[in-house]
Design brief:
This protein is of the alpha+beta class and 214 residues long. It has helices spanning 11-26, 30-46, 126-129, and strands spanning 60-62, 67-77, 83-92, 99-101, 106-114, 132-139, 142-149, 156-159, 166-167, 172-177, 180-186, 190-192, 199-200, 206-210. A hairpin with a 2-residue loop joins strand 6 and strand 7 (142-149).
Length: 214
Amino acid sequence: MRDFPLAKEGLIFVLPSLLLSLLFLFFHLYILALIFIFLFLFFIYFFRNPKRIGQSGAAELIAPADGKVMGIEELSEEEFLKGRAQRVSTFMGLADVHVNRAPCDGVVSRISHRPGRYGLAFKKDVDRENERNYILLEKENEKLLVVQIAGFLARRICCWVHEKDTVRKGDPLGIIAFGSRVDIYIPPGYEIMVQLGQKVKSGLTLLARKRGET
């Protein structure tokens, strides 16, 4: 189902809205039928999972999420990476694809889900207070961390990979139902190739490149 053009989490919204629209059409309740047809189309659009095959080199990382870059900063991440890292935060709007993708080839070495609040994804401290899911990837001798963060509308973080899974660059990692934010922590030695406010696409946009390599 990870390669299916519709995320499986959307089926619980798509199928009932389709059935209800047909039911209301059958009983000539056209206004209600139009409402549920609109909902059906919205859910199809929202939970879309397009196939993406980006062109990038082994020394390059691609964006893990669609949306707008809302933060680029250097900080210390001691729990998973145990050292300095560059964090790039991407805010996903309702019109964006919400399937998250692997930024590089690697092995999933750890997954950790944390319950939390559902504050607005662009507010300060949501990376520590909101519900979130950590996916630690190991690439050769490097570690990268992808964090799925629920927001105000999001009420479910879905992770499609498991510990010890091998992933290829661009493989789907999961989805955040109805939105919000994805952070990626990149180890030292990489040049960030995106800018604040830039729109990026998961699996396609070049996010970072290892210094001294092409």
